[in-house]
Amino acid sequence: MAISKELINEIGQFSAATLHEALGKTGNLPSGIKPISPKMKVCGTAYTVKTMPCDNMMLHRAYAYAKAGDVLVVNCSNFYEAGYWGDLMSLGAKMKGIAGLVIDGCVRDADDIEAMDFPVFSRGLCIKGTGNHGEGILNQPIIMGEYMVNPGDIIVGDRDGVVVIPQNLVAETIEKARARELKEAKVRIELRKGLNSLQIYGWDKKYGY
Amino acid sequence: MAISKELINEIGQFSAATLHEALGKTGNLPSGIKPISPKMKVCGTAYTVKTMPCDNMMLHRAYAYAKAGDVLVVNCSNFYEAGYWGDLMSLGAKMKGIAGLVIDGCVRDADDIEAMDFPVFSRGLCIKGTGNHGEGILNQPIIMGEYMVNPGDIIVGDRDGVVVIPQNLVAETIEKARARELKEAKVRIELRKGLNSLQIYGWDKKYGY
Amino acid sequence: MAISKELINEIGQFSAATLHEALGKTGNLPSGIKPISPKMKVCGTAYTVKTMPCDNMMLHRAYAYAKAGDVLVVNCSNFYEAGYWGDLMSLGAKMKGIAGLVIDGCVRDADDIEAMDFPVFSRGLCIKGTGNHGEGILNQPIIMGEYMVNPGDIIVGDRDGVVVIPQNLVAETIEKARARELKEAKVRIELRKGLNSLQIYGWDKKYGY
Amino acid sequence: MAISKELINEIGQFSAATLHEALGKTGNLPSGIKPISPKMKVCGTAYTVKTMPCDNMMLHRAYAYAKAGDVLVVNCSNFYEAGYWGDLMSLGAKMKGIAGLVIDGCVRDADDIEAMDFPVFSRGLCIKGTGNHGEGILNQPIIMGEYMVNPGDIIVGDRDGVVVIPQNLVAETIEKARARELKEAKVRIELRKGLNSLQIYGWDKKYGY
Amino acid sequence: MAISKELINEIGQFSAATLHEALGKTGNLPSGIKPISPKMKVCGTAYTVKTMPCDNMMLHRAYAYAKAGDVLVVNCSNFYEAGYWGDLMSLGAKMKGIAGLVIDGCVRDADDIEAMDFPVFSRGLCIKGTGNHGEGILNQPIIMGEYMVNPGDIIVGDRDGVVVIPQNLVAETIEKARARELKEAKVRIELRKGLNSLQIYGWDKKYGY
Amino acid sequence: MAISKELINEIGQFSAATLHEALGKTGNLPSGIKPISPKMKVCGTAYTVKTMPCDNMMLHRAYAYAKAGDVLVVNCSNFYEAGYWGDLMSLGAKMKGIAGLVIDGCVRDADDIEAMDFPVFSRGLCIKGTGNHGEGILNQPIIMGEYMVNPGDIIVGDRDGVVVIPQNLVAETIEKARARELKEAKVRIELRKGLNSLQIYGWDKKYGY
């Protein structure tokens, strides 16, 4: 059940925080995973990877096998302090149309990656090189912090963080996100009039605040 | 004993580091609390808040009750990984003239907050939503890292960090900060002549360095 | 056996990550040590310092004793949360021609240091002041994370991190770094043709990937 | 597909480390979760719980709903520093025949729990009290560190740590664990003769060690 | 307003967790502070100390100045990894009738301290020696984690953790702790009959659990 | 320059803390490395090992190559959360007369290791299995926290922690440790008379304490 490009484009218009709320406050990936430049955004279908600590062979395979529009989502077995990804891999992935990288570990060559505008979300930057023994998992369900990410799930990330939307909830999530934005637009109008949220949400009367 | 706007403006001219030194090396809030954009600065009177972990009702109440010129200073019961504050609350607070937010936890909607130029100092960014059960403390003394912050204390923050100045020490601190800046200006002249600090402070002779 | 300025300039053209690889994946300093502004780069000969926790007298002595072109490399006895270095010391060091600071601890006065373009690599920013009892070590071998740094070793740092190159390996490392860059340039051409790394490195045939 | 008591008893004879190996090096729960007394062991079917930070209502419900032989397996939303469980709950659970508690958070009343010999595996001890708002998840799949735990999975814990065995792998895992123990018994005989593992596993010849 | 020995003895009969609850879930010191032997208990009036990182002169002064029945409560400026206290200081303190040590840092000579049965609660054990420059604070209010400890407050610690009871709340806290123990005794009887807490507290009817 | 068994036995009579002090407050290994049972002690000559993260082949080789009386001292490249060592390896090492293991990582099979009385000092216990790719370093200088350990250095560990004594300082360190113990014995007599350390060390007069 592939999600259409139109739906993916549409869901990518919302912020990660809005989608997290639309999902009933779920789907948030570890908050330590952030874009290497605050302007970077990412949106696409998950191609999942689990690497052994300090080994990046699976990442070479991942970008070779993934399809255009995929986001590589990578669990590094809790060993963050290595540069699992760099400028050459970014170039190769970009050439293939890969939509970006979301990795629970570090990367390197930040300037070059930023220059080629390939979205990378990571724990940070680290020059430490990796091995290439190659054990791990490709395109199967993986754990990312508090949630499981399945191949084909939708990944949306911005400066605030990254969210995963299960495939079967995409349409529903878009609808809820739209409703939330509409509601927020109305609240914004009230706030601009000088009302506070206790008044707008009726908490002043409900709780006597 | 309210501090006059003039004094607050004046103390806000000094850097957080200078005020910390003028206070006898005290008053430094946890160094993990930093502005979400390095250019942000904050200065105002503390309106203190303690929230339960992952709950932000107290923050809604806080900006409703606080007065123009107040800085919300928030202890989140050591649960950092939630987005306790966002763009709507920033808008509401800004409308009321709240001077900024200093929170020992995370926030979200960084781009929107930055765009409206509302100063937010936090542990970082996190999309994880919060509940609104509402337990906590409003405008009473709270602990922030190594120091107690009392309602009405002066809060000054910049890229280097945040400092709290007890109300009764404001005038004295300004005086000492001025003296320190004057002394530093003189040291700067000596340094530009090529002298080093061992010579300037006389440590070369005192200790034989 | 001093390294010539020409060699130092030459080695400073390579990125920290490239030099780390050229060294056989060694020499990486703790990845938590990063430039206070992402554009900063540092390159020079190590003048090593070990301070006691929360004491910076040794740093005053270090910049007074070090020579032009030296980079101060500082171990703070695992107490990161203090501002061991600031704008005055940066000015004094810059006047002497010190090439930069790499410190396993925090600093303060970030705006002023950035304005004077003195390269500072640190664990972060912290306003907490230090004492000046003065115990510690000057210009002797020190531990920085996983490696020992000897006085006179070459230090190269950029946004990705910092690497230490032992004096006797400088020429060899430059050669290997050049070879690596050449090889990467060739790989880049292949990647731009649409080949992936499995194909370029022959891993598809070797491992059946 | 319930697992028979016989199989559960049988699998409980193996150590957590042996079962982890028999599972192909999977199923290990976070190593920070340890018995409050090193002699405690636990074995049973998982009754899964997710609590909000600092709230234990779900744990009251869990032991009321779980059946004899169940082990409560609890995710506390990454807020460890609270005493989610104590002597009264241990007594209530023990009365119902609950086989033990495995919680990714802290507990309190350690002496009393130890005295009644109810197996508790936790991050440690903490006196901080919890609320009872009651949000969370009961008996549905939850994440515990690197793995998902499903209701009905088998949990085995000892001083070394805790492992989860998926229901459908129980018989196969027992077989593999038996084979491993047999193989280890043979290795033990060789080791007692004075051979080392390079010789026993043939690594000396294979790799020239 | 000194607390009588009788009241101190009486409050020491309750567990730290019970007193924390009787205080309205407040007063819990950092849960990382634990007895060096699980059997140790401590109870007495707080003599407060703040040391500089890695310096223990203040501790020598503290046990010399404190009176029999006092517990030394020590903040080490967030530098835990040093052995601030050992067997000689334990002997000296014990000779004076000091009731124990509660330190937010490490100690050493654990076997000897245990042998002389002097209660020590710490972050752990560390052999690293300290200096004796002597800056710090004696017998003034200090911060210990989430709470302030005032000289003369009552400190009670056991294997579960440590609690501070403000002087003016001692009588009231004893009363509430007694009431809580009585209530728990009744709950225990109900639990032994086979009822669960949902039934005992009426949550089954109130919430439909 | 091998150290005689007599000297090793002699140095092993001192506590780790005493030897650390005798070395001028140096040589302390990371305080997170502790015996798996508080009664364990270790003393011997260092056989050094550096493993890749989550790989223990080097440990198999290490105990095969080391000689009776050696202590294996292991750096696991900062990946602690794996069980690098277990009961079979302990048996093999014990058969060869290896004096113990000091590892900056975790181990498993704690009960069996304790039963065979083989001293193991580690970061803790973890069931997670390791690979055997085999990269690393054998019997060359390695970094252990703040210090370098050279093959042949003397390692002494007890419940308080572990210390490394450079080969060439053994005789001198024994002498200083003896002097320290003698001095402490005298202080102990003074303390038993009721004097405090301010009086005994003359700090009362020197500093007016």
Attribute tags:
homohexamer; 209 residues; alpha/beta; Glucose Oxidase, domain 1; 2 domains; 8-stranded mixed beta sheet; two-stranded parallel sheet; 8 helices; 33% helix; elongated
Provide structural commentary.
The structure is a homohexamer of 209-residue chains. By secondary structure, chain A is α/β, with parallel strands linked by helices. Chain A folds into two domains: 5-166, 3-Layer(bba) Sandwich (Glucose Oxidase, domain 1); 175-207, no CATH class. Helices cover 33% and strands 23% of the residues of chain A. The first copy, chain A, has helices at 5-11, 16-22, 57-65, 87-95, 110-115, 170-192, 197-200, 203-207, and strands at residues 34-35, 42-51, 70-75, 100-104, 106-107, 120-122, 124-125, 136-138, 142-144, 147-149, 154-158, 161-165. In chain A, strands 1, 2, 3, 4, 6, 8, 11 and 12 form an eight-stranded mixed sheet that branches. In chain A, strands 5-7 form a two-stranded parallel sheet. In chain A, β9 (142-144) and β10 form a beta hairpin. The longest helix of chain A has 23 residues, at 170-192. Chain A is elongated and about 65 Å long. The termini of chain A are far apart. The mean pLDDT of chain A is 97. Chains in contact: A-B, A-C, A-D, A-F, B-C, B-D, B-E, C-E, C-F, D-E, D-F, E-F. Chains B and D meet through loops of B and loops of D.
What's the architecture of the largest domain in chain A, going by CATH?
Answer: 3-Layer(bba) Sandwich
The most extensive interface between chains reads:
A-B, 31 and 26 residues
Give the CATH level 1 class of the largest domain in chain A.
Alpha Beta
Order of helices and strands of chain A: HHEEHEHEEHEEEEEEEHHH
Uncertain segments of chain A are none
- Given helix and strand content, the structural type of chain A is alpha/beta
Tell me the name of the CATH homologous superfamily of the largest domain in chain A: Ribonuclease E inhibitor RraA/RraA-like
